[in-house]
Request: fold
Amino acid sequence: MNDRASRQTLPPQEQGRQPGLEELMSPRPEFAPRFSGAAKLDGKVALVTGGDSGIGRATAVAFAREGAKIAILYLDEHDDAKRTEEFIAAENGKAMLLPGDIADEGFCAEAVHEVQTNFGSINILVNNAGEQHVVEEPLRITAKQLQRTFATNVFSMFYLSRQILPRMKAGDTIINMASVTAYRGSKHLIDYSATKGAIVAFTRALAAAVAAQGIRVNAVAPGPIWTPLIPASFKAGHVSKFGGDTPLGRPGQPNEVASCIVFLASEESSYVTGQVLHPTGGEPVSS
Reply:
């Protein structure tokens, strides 16, 4: 094992439930926007799944700084979600919280209707929420786990996109959360890696399908990012070395990914669609 792979980057820790809770992490992930706002999303309405914590929280707060209203879909992490709402308010933003299971098509339809009713439009969809389950042996991946992982990570994107696309107009955007595992795989996360590969293909296909309407669809495929999903998935020893094998020698922070998402949601990326950005800490990928 090389020096980077064996380097401790974080205190050992783990959580016994999914989804994980940001409030239990040490150190807390860095979510505050890294730059001053420039009204890049002024007057826009964004729906962010998994917006209670991690990359979703960082994205929601960054969107608020750029002038957007934000609807946050999350499962049951109510304290994290309320904290995110407070951070959005501190940016003079407006948020609504919608707890529920995005693997349920009915919940997705109800949530979109509620956002439309309260905010009047939906201009940005960020399909960020996901789940993963570490399994050491491929044959131990059960049909139940496989179906659940695909339902959360992939089917939800279809459900929400189908509801929101008819409400979108030219200039509106969809951003999907892929992963570096879509490109290099992970022997401990075979079903998760498969969902992320599906998301890359979904992004490219949907982008082509709606390009004539002026709607852009892109994705972000991060490397190791310090989010609640990490201590909720891995043993403490693995967590303590998380991100140490990247060229930068550390895990990334949620706000380092949120900057990519703000770019893809704004007019700064007006000639970008069907593409994937790679904040991986220097790990090369072939896209």
Residues 166 and 282 are 38 Å apart (CA to CA). Strands lie at 45-49, 69-74, 95-99, 124-127, 173-177, 216-220, 276-277. The radius of gyration is 18 Å.
